[in-house]
TrEMBL record:
Protein's cellular compartments: Nucleus
Stored SUPFAM superfamilies: 3-carboxy-cis,cis-mucoante lactonizing enzyme, WD40 repeat-like
InterPro entries (alphabetical): Beta-prop_CAF1B_HIR1, HIR1-like, HIRA-like_C, HIRA_B_motif, WD40/YVTN_repeat-like_dom_sf, WD40_repeat_dom_sf, WD40_rpt
Keyword annotations from UniProtKB, A to Z: Chromatin regulator, Nucleus, Repeat, Repressor, Transcription, Transcription regulation, WD repeat
Protein species of origin: Calycina marina
UniProt GO BP: chromatin remodeling; DNA-templated transcription; regulation of DNA-templated transcription
Regions that span the bilayer: none
Protein name: Protein HIR
Domain Protein HIRA-like C-terminal as annotated: residue spans: 737-974
Organism lineage: Eukaryota, Fungi, Dikarya, Ascomycota, Pezizomycotina
Length: 1039
């Protein structure tokens, strides 16, 4: 071992040598870069340093010097691929240099003693991302990322390809002074004055990775606290190092009781049971040699057939700090191999090993740069690089995005998760290919709905005399679309060469076959008995609709530059663009659909409003005097000549996707019952005749009644009929016309009257909602005002009266919950348990969430059967039918009111601005998770069984992809609930997630937990958590 300290190896100034803060050796071992307080980065020839005692050595000593910083440079690091050199200083800037192959064009600067440069290092980038001094830098071992840390407590991740800022991590609470990378390229660790080391897991990004793509990368894995609880805060650096075999992290400035030490942290469990003790002062830097060592020289006797060493290999680590002492240790001895005291006059600031593992360079704050060269065998015998690769294989080096399996249970759980995914994929593929044994996706509401594109009229079964039921042969139906398809197949075009060609026809565009795939319509499936949901507008699209232009957020921000594809022979024809512009940047973003003439703006279709058109009105209704002093004033319907209500309203108007009725309309009309209210025409100033109420079937009057006041609204179903009069009275009749209830009197004119099952809803002109159960003769809650959801506070505070949102529809679900939609796109539910309105859908989710109007196959069968008329012929309400389709109905309404009518312009502009702002990198991901949580909470509150399971699975899958361990652990614990807890009679009983029932929203908790564990089973970084629940459910065997 020999020490080399040339007099010329320093950052000399006029008065003194400047403090040297950092050094690093290039990957090929030929260059040593140093950084000092003079603001210069100097590159030295390592060969010249090692031959400093040779007087005949005539090669250049200093290869280059760069002075692009305006302050003290704290760190300098070569990239592992040797292409880049990075430096960070107290001017908050990071400079990236590269070696230009051309000779340097400039000579020595006038007035300096600097030797002329030998190599032409040029600055390539100046990176701005820190708000205070940059203390340390680190490169990943594949050079794909660079991480910088500083006194602003930030960790900034930069792309190693483009040097774009990928992520800013603010996980530490104080100055960050050290960074090291895992040689297996799975983690990096940062050391801070908050007395912690934090480990971050990452996947190496590609050259095209952007800041948005890195939202879910570089996640905090673990925080190490124990060895640093009382470490001093006086050190300038906390430079840590990762061992070349990947097993250990050496952490400087640790303590063992009152003694300073270097903590050796074990990989995986991240604990510290080994401390290197001996330094009298705090250590500032420790670094592992990049090579592995053996006690005996590598030979044929000490290697196996594959060429790998059969003897144990050890690592070597060097430590130094404020006590001016350099110590060198290896892992096979409890005592240091070398201790060099008073190596410098001041504290040692940095250490770096040459790639051969036989030379170490040290820098000190006294301005000295020292090389220590070891003879062969002094530290051990150097193992070949293949031993490093072999040692790292167990950590998955070279495998992108693959975590480390903890145990056999993790592998079994992963196999179960993959088997479930494969079964689902095979089922969908069977449907796509038309396999005879493939089953169509089950419908969620427990009812069988007709295919939206079915054009064949179903025929009833023929019953033989005393025999079994026989299927009648299908009737031959002339389909006009088939003729069109045949004509399209025979279309011949002539190319410019004069050749005839038959124009190709896309098989899926014929529309003649029945498809078992989810139909791409916003209404998420159409049934033969689907009823009108007036005034809901139904949007029919030819592809899945995401609430954003095609291409999503990126298309909205950057536009779509694809060119139109022209057929042969049409190049010389001047084409007019079939795609309207995506907006001029000043207006709302238009939403496009595929029309017959190319891309066309999507428009809401006209609502289907029943059997007959609305008649002319006679006069306005006489309003109550309370409207003049009421905070809310809703529009009162006009007095019409007659009002019709069909028991099966909307069935007669339903059509298939081909434009033809799927059933025989006349046969259904004959069985329908019509409820009619006729108001007499007013003659003169006095109205003399009463209003007439009647029900008819096949033209015959079933019963009739008379009311003294004009009727303004009617409703009804199979359980009762109801009519609301101008004076605020509400009358009810049984299906046979018996009055078994007295008139219900409300405070103002009814403006909305709806019924479902035995529930009756009335909303008055002063915004009060009444709900009654005619079966139990009770109300689930007192009358409730709509003022909270109509923004009464916002619109009453101004100096001038402004128009607030208006009610577009109000419905009841099977449990008597009020469901209200407004013209600003919001959808609300009144909770009778909490006595408060709850917002279930809003424009915020529509413009910001990635899950808005998901056309997932599991969602395509969600029918809005719990809003609008009730088609059940019995009194049974299955658990699967409660609130089924309410949430999709509300979100479709939000799309129609907000996106298609251009009312989301302000929110769209805000979202566009936030996506590019610093500090909002996780904005879209966070809002999307919030949207899924909103859906899950709404489904649980409504009791929508199938939707709850669907949304819960979507939520679980997204949390697994995001790697949010805290939320996942809380979710699994909440699903498990009271299954394993002993029932305690004392205390208040919980509800929902906190209930002790074995069921959650109608599902067995264990079944929900099993599905969640299967979904999360494929994420290896979560297996330490999910395997425990899998063992509880007996999904994997105990070890």
């Amino acid at each position: 071992m020999k020490f080399i300290k040339p007099a010329w190896l320093s950052h000399s100034g006029e008065q003194k040598d400047y403090e040297v803060y950092s050094c690093h050796v290039s990957p090929d071992g030929s260059r040593l870069a140093t950084a000092a307080g003079d603001g210069h980065v100097r590159i030295w020839s390592t060969d010249a340093i090692l031959h400093a005692q040779d007087p005949n050595y005539a090669q250049p000593k200093q290869l280059c010097h760069m002075s692009y910083h305006s302050g003290t440079i704290h760190t300098v690091r070569f990239s592992p691929n040797g292409r880049w050199l990075a430096s960070g200083a107290d001017d908050k800037i990071i400079c990236i240099y590269h070696l230009d192959t051309s000779p340097p064009a400039h000579s020595v600067s006038f007035g300096t003693n600097e030797p002329p440069p030998v190599e032409n290092w040029k600055i390539a980038k100046r990176l701005i991302g820190h708000d205070n001094d940059v203390q340390d830098l680190g490169w990943s071992y594949d050079s794909s990322i660079m991480v910088s840390v500083g006194l602003d407590s930030k960790i900034v991740v930069w792309s190693g390809h483009t040097f774009e800022k990928l992520k800013i991590i603010q996980a530490h609470q104080s100055h960050v002074k050290g960074i090291t990378f895992d040689p297996a390229n799975k983690y990096f660790a940062t050391a801070s004055d908050d007395r912690t080391i934090k480990l971050f897991r990452f996947n190496s990004p590609s050259p095209s990775t952007t800041q948005y793509d890195s939202i879910n990368n570089f996640v905090l894995e673990h925080t190490i606290v124990e060895p640093f609880k009382s470490s001093p805060l006086t050190t300038y650096f906390r430079r840590c190092s990762w061992s070349p075999d990947g097993n250990h992290i050496a952490a400087a400035n640790a303590v063992n009781g009152p003694v300073s030490s270097v903590a050796i942290i074990n990989r995986g469990i991240w604990d510290s049971d080994i401390n290197l003790i001996g330094h009298e002062g705090p250590t500032e830097v420790c670094t592992f040699s990049p090579r592995l060592f053996s006690k005996q020289e590598i030979s044929a006797d000490t290697t196996d057939n594959s060429g790998h060493s059969t003897q144990p290999l050890v690592t070597v680590i060097a430590c130094a700090g404020q006590d001016k002492t350099l110590s060198i240790w290896n892992t096979s001895s409890s005592r240091p191999l070398v201790v060099c005291q008073d190596l410098a006059a001041k504290s040692i600031s940095d250490l770096t090993w040459a790639p051969d593992g036989a030379t170490i360079f040290a820098t000190s704050l006294d301005g000295s740069i020292i090389a220590v060269q070891f003879e062969k065998g002094e530290l051990g015998y150097i193992a070949p690089w293949s031993e490093n690769e072999k040692a790292l294989q167990k950590f998955g080096v070279g495998r992108r995005g693959v975590g480390v399996v903890e145990d056999i249970s993790g592998l079994r759980l992963e196999d179960l998760a993959k088997a479930g995914e494969m079964a689902g994929a095979q089922g969908r593929m069977g449907e796509l290919m038309g396999a005879p044994d493939s089953q169509p996706a089950p419908l969620m509401n427990g009812t069988i709905h007709a295919s939206p594109i079915a054009s064949v009229t179903p025929t009833p079964a023929v019953v033989a005399n005393g025999g079994p039921v026989q299927e009648a042969p299908p009737a031959a139906v002339e389909d006009s679309s088939a003729q069109k398809v045949e004509a399209m197949k025979q279309r011949v075009t002539i190319t410019k060469e004069g050749k005839k060609r038959v124009a190709p026809l896309l098989v899926s565009s014929s529309g003649t076959g029945l498809s078992s795939l989810p139909q791409t319509q916003m209404i998420a499936g159409i049934s033969s008995n689907l009823t009108s949901e007036a005034p809901q507008s139904i949007l029919d699209l030819s592809k899945p609709y995401d609430g954003l232009p095609r291409g999503g957020i990126a298309s909205m921000l950057l536009g779509n530059k694809r060119k139109a594809i022209y057929l042969d022979g049409e190049e010389d024809v001047e084409h007019q663009s079939k795609r309207p512009a995506l907006g001029d940047g000043n207006g709302p973003i238009p939403i496009m659909i595929n029309g017959i003439n190319g891309a066309e703006p999507a428009v809401p279709s006209l609502p289907r409003i029943g059997v007959v058109s609305t008649p002319d009105f006679i006069r306005p209704a006489i309003v109550n005097a309370t409207l003049s002093v009421s905070q809310l004033r809703l529009a009162v319907p006009r007095i019409r000549t007659h009002i019709l209500r069909s028991l099966d309203r909307g069935t007669l108007a339903s059509t298939t996707a081909n434009g033809t009725s799927g059933v025989d309309e006349s046969s259904k009309a004959s069985e329908d019952i019509i409820f009619e209210a006729v108001n007499p025409a007013q003659t003169g100033a006095v109205r003399k005749d009463p209003a007439k109420i009647s029900t008819t079937k096949r033209g015959a009057v079933l019963w009739q009644d008379f009311l003294p006041q004009a009727v303004i609204l009617v409703t009804g179903n199979k359980n009762f009929w109801s009519a609301a009069c101008e004076d605020g009275s509400i009358y009810t009749w049984t299906p046979s016309g018996r009055r078994i209830f007295n008139a219900l009197c409300v405070e103002a004119q009814p403006v909305i009257l709806e019924s479902r099952g035995w529930w009756l809803l009335c909303i008055t002109a002063v915004g009060t909602c009444h709900v009654w159960s005619l079966k139990t003769l009770s109300s689930p809650h007192p009358p409730v005002s709509m003022a909270p959801i109509l923004d009464i506070a916002m619109h009453s505070l101004g100096t001038h009266t402004t128009s607030g949102p208006a009610v577009t529809s109000a419905h009841l679900n099977s449990n008597g919950f009020i469901i209200v939609t407004l013209n600003n796109g919001d959808g609300y539910m009144y909770s009778p348990n909490l006595f408060v309105w709850q917002r279930l859908s809003e424009a915020w989710w529509a413009v910001s969430s990635q899950y808005w109007n998901s056309n997932d196959s599991s969602l395509s069968s969600l029918q809005s059967s719990s809003v609008g008329p009730d088609m059940r012929r019995d009194d049974q309400v299955g658990t699967a039918d409660i609130s089924a389709g309410v949430i999709p109905h509300l979100e479709r309404h939000t799309t129609n009111e907000v996106l298609l009518k251009g009312r989301a312009y302000t929110l769209q502009r805000m979202t566009k601005a936030l996506l590019s702002r610093e500090g909002f990198e996780t904005f879209e991901s966070t809002v999307s998770i919030g949207h899924l949580e909103n859906r899950v909470a709404a489904a649980l509150q409504l009791g929508a069984k199938e939707e709850f399971k669907t949304y819960l699975n979507m939520y679980t899958k997204r949390l697994g992809a995001e790697g949010q361990k805290n939320k996942i652990e809380e979710l699994l614990r909440s699903i498990l609930g009271g299954v394993l807890q002993e029932k305690d009679g004392a205390g208040e009983k919980g509800a929902g997630w906190l209930s002790n029932n074995k069921q959650l929203c109608g599902w067995d908790r264990k079944e929900l937990l099993r599905q969640a564990v299967l979904i999360l089973g494929k994420f290896r970084e979560l297996q330490r958590l999910t395997v425990q629940y899998a063992k509880v459910l007996d999904m994997v065997e105990e070890e």
